[in-house]
Amino acid sequence: EGKTTLLSQLSLDLCLQGCRTLWGSFEVQNAKLVAKMMQQQQRQSLRGCSPDEFDAAADEFAQLPMWFLKYFGSTKVEHVLDAMEYAAHAHDVQHVVLDNLQFMTFGMGGDDKFAMIDTCLAKVRQFATDHNVHVSLVMHPRKEEPGKEIHMGSVYGSGKATQDSDNVIIIQHVGKLRYLDIQKNRFDGTRGKVPFVFDSHTLR
């Protein structure tokens, strides 16, 4: 819960600092995602605003170096990678957000889900390395007992996802407490937990 909203805010904040970003949202349609981002950028709800206010907010959002994949729902990973490669060359994209991995295992064939996930991860990892692009990839955890923390072993798959990743950030919900749990940080090494609250008015 909250993965798309959190990544939306983080990618928006990076984009405002000039980080050229490509979004692949397979679970939330682009129109809804953009509406969320516009509200986050304006730090207020746009419901009930005047047409002029909405146009001003839309114009401000359109100035950001951000692009969106047109794919929605189950999509072959090869199609996604082709679009990512084009964006890397044509727009010099530095950050790609893919939400989420499960939608990209479509059409890979075979009955071994872990093998399909590993193949998909290997292709995404290779793209990131070849093009020097940071990829933020959403993955769902396995079901854990209520009230218990999620750990790296909870990430769905064979373990390749956490092994190949430079960073692993988990959204923890323990009782009423919510926090970001940085469980892996390959280059800096700093790990820790950052409590956060959600403001439904700004969606931040």
SS summary, helix count: 6
- Through-space gap between termini: 14 Å
The coarse overall form would be globular
Strand order of the largest sheet: 2-1-3-4
Mean pLDDT, rounded to whole units?
Answer: 91
Computed structural class: alpha/beta
How many strands?
Answer: 7
Portion in helices: 25-40%
Q: Give the strand content.
A: 15-25%
Q: Give the biggest beta sheet.
A: 4 strands, parallel
Element-level helix/strand string:
HEHHEHEHEHEEE
Report low-confidence residues grouped into runs of 5 or more.
none
Radius of gyration (CA) equals 18 Å
Mind explaining what this structure looks like?
The chain is 38% helix and 19% strand. The chain has 204 residues and is an alpha/beta fold. It has a four-stranded parallel beta sheet with strand order 2-1-3-4, sandwiched between helices. The chain has a three-stranded antiparallel beta sheet with strand order 5-6-7, with no helix packed on it. 22% of the residues are buried. The model has no long low-confidence stretch (mean pLDDT 91).
